[in-house]
């Protein structure tokens, strides 16, 4: 079997530049505020939405900027939960501003994480994939259908973000497809997380709305799952009948 090389034009340079810029940004943040990283780690792992909300509010006019930096940091790291920050954004800024802030920050964070993971992991993954016919077929499928697969995966609320990012990083999905799928797919999942989280904290006030959101979301995602399965089955059938697959 001929070994396959993963070297799309210009992407290696983009990955290097993205990695360098990210490292430079981390260094600058540490120079400006040496307490930033310990504080971010504590808030991201504490699970206390009230503490996070209080911390964000303490920055006054800069609260939105700090909140976005915190959310970007957590999503770029990849293995820390961002649900607490998203909920805190809803509590501090209101539901819709909280949704917009969390959506943009989480999208930026997972894109940064994608480039970091792909830069460090893709070469090793490519060697492993080239040794297996099954893995090559799956990898080719992820390249041809990466946008749809990633779009559906990102639209799922409460699913571990780092797992989806890692799968995208070692797959053949094109960066532009990954970015677009995340920009679109992150919105419904983030909106649900902020809305449900905010209503749970204020359960007594929003019990009726919370119930409606949960029921409607369950119905919509059930329909989307059926449509997604039909699409995947159709694409698998087409690949099985394609002599060049």
What is the compact description of this entry?
This protein is an all-alpha fold and 245 residues long.
Q: How would you portray this structure in words?
A:
This protein is mainly alpha-helical and 245 residues long. The protein is 82% helix and 0% strand. The protein is built from 10 helices and no strands. The longest helix has 38 residues, at 203-240. The protein is flat and about 60 Å long.
Topology:
Layout: H1 11-32, H2 36-46, H3 49-57, H4 63-77, H5 83-93, H6 95-130, H7 133-154, H8 161-170, H9 175-201, H10 203-240
Helix run count: 10
Helix content: over 70%
Query: Average pLDDT, to the nearest integer?
Result: 77
How does the helix and strand content classify structurally? mainly alpha
- Ends distance: 14 Å
Largest sheet geometry: none
Q: Which stretches are poorly predicted, pLDDT < 50 over at least 5 residues? A: 1-9
Which shape, going by the Cα principal axes?
A: flat
Radius of gyration (CA) equals 20 Å
Number of strands: 0
**Proportion of β residues?**
under 5%
SSE string:
HHHHHHHHHH
Keywords:
245 residues; 0% strand; mainly alpha; disordered N terminus; single chain
